[in-house]
Amino acid sequence: MNIQLQACTAQDADELFAFERDNRRYFEQSIPSRGDDYYEPETFRERHASLLQEQLDGKSFFFLIKNETGSILGRINLVDRHPITKRAELGYRIGRLNTVKGIATQAVRLLMEYCPALDIQEIQAKTTDGNTASQIILSRNGFKRVNEEETAELNGQQVTLIQFKRIV
């Protein structure tokens, strides 16, 4: 499947809200919930506007993963960009109906191409020890596992977070 990355805009709010709402239960199986208020239309719009301001300020970058017809398949982000170390944190999520199709692997690869223009030289990512799919996606894109691990609570259970890093 051919995909494209498109920088998030204010015009994406309604379609992105529907994507997040439709995939909420699926996402919450593997990442912490964003809370009930996130799924209220007005709150979502406020948070979306705040993220877009971060993007304008060069602190974070938010992209939609779209197919040939322009439908949202997922999202991929580089957040907390540090202007001195030129480091940012990678995050992505693919909608339930589009997993196991290579979309995340392809999206991460495409995102790497944006990094020089965004003045990012190092990307860090975290995934849970049980999320082997994400570990494979990162490894296929040249990320190396680092020995820094931490624990977190996910759905009432303690999980180990594994950190990955890639120099761009």
UniProtKB/TrEMBL annotation:
Gene3D superfamilies, per database record: 3.40.630.30
Transmembrane segments: none
Listed Pfam families: Acetyltransf_3
Keywords for the protein's UniProt record, in alphabetical order: Acyltransferase, Transferase
Keyword Cell inner membrane: no
Entry GO MF terms: protein-N-terminal-alanine acetyltransferase activity
InterPro entries to which the protein is assigned, alphabetical: Acyl_CoA_acyltransferase (IPR016181), GNAT_dom (IPR000182), N-acetyltransferase (IPR051531)
Ranges for domain N-acetyltransferase: 3-166
GO CC terms: cytoplasm
Family named by the database record: Belongs to the acetyltransferase family. RimJ subfamily.
Protein name: GCN5-related N-acetyltransferase
Source organism per UniProt: Exiguobacterium sibiricum (strain DSM 17290 / CCUG 55495 / CIP 109462 / JCM 13490 / 255-15)
